[in-house]
Fold this protein.
Amino acid sequence: MPSPPPRAPHEAPKTGRREAWIRHLADLHRDRPDRQVVAGHHNINYVVPLGWSLALLLRTMPFRARVKCRMPREAVEVAPRIWPSEPELLRVVSRYLKEVPRCFRDFGDWSLHSYRAGRALSEVQPQGPVGEALMRSFAEFFARAAAVPEAELPPRPADWPESGQSEAFLRWLVDFTEKRVHEPNRRRFDALFSAVGVRRDAMTAFLDDPGRPRLTPRPFCLLHTDVHRANVVVDRKQLAVIDWELAMYGDPLHDLATHVVRMDYEKDEQTRVKELWADGMERAGHAAMTEGMATDLPVYLDFEYAQSVFPDIMRAALDLIALPDEPDAADFAGAAARVCRAVRRAAEPLKLDSVPDEGVAESALREWCAGPFGRP
């Protein structure tokens, strides 16, 4: 399902001569030929130096400063966005987490943000251990995010579970995966899903599994839901978590689970970061958020592996047809490896009958690419 068209600003556009100049200069910044392009799944960002004139109008310091021109991109919907305006959320988050880049202006079709200096952790340490110091910083981050007042967050959808309704929260996530990710894309990708062993009823069976523990009620808090190496900026061993477009309000164990899975921690660090998270939450006065962790965190980890199988397979296929030239053997082999890894990680929580080898996955991808939904 494609993303919605460019949204309107979350508040009435600012008017007057000063605001007109801000928009004019911001457009010039965005269109600079020397801009640095940083593309993600959900946004394209242009990073440019902040000129003196725009800095003065924005009432910020221009010395060596850069800004980020952030534009939503059309993409297959694979993750819930309960707050359509990231700038509106950042107004709150940046007051309490000072390291988080703030939004200077929301123009509706794009927005202008401060730029966090440093290097993405995905560049500094793309895989393997991250070390005790960074894991402690992550634990501190989650505890501070949990302290952002719920009353100041933007309104949530009408059907959103109330704080403490952890089981209802998990059911909402599963329902989103089935109704908004799997079903809308089933016609296009169903043959590919079936060829690699992912059944149509996979998520429903996961939710209704009689052997799955029912979740302990826990207080809800602000969740980032996408804390991985590419969304973490490191500078002098300090970190800042960026890109809040997928943030939500819910069970804190869901945030920990997505972090553990998407960071791809090695086994010993996975254990250690869980310990540090629990300790950090307790020391910050959020002990109630750790209730039932021993039985419930594995459920959220299983859910993360299970729901990831759909976007991972779709992205592997879509990346092949997005190549400028016909995919070659190496392209298909790389895509097949991604598919097999996703299915392998989801096999146990989804009770899949079998996991394909890379030859089966590659054949399925080739057939999909040659079919009506592949390359023209």
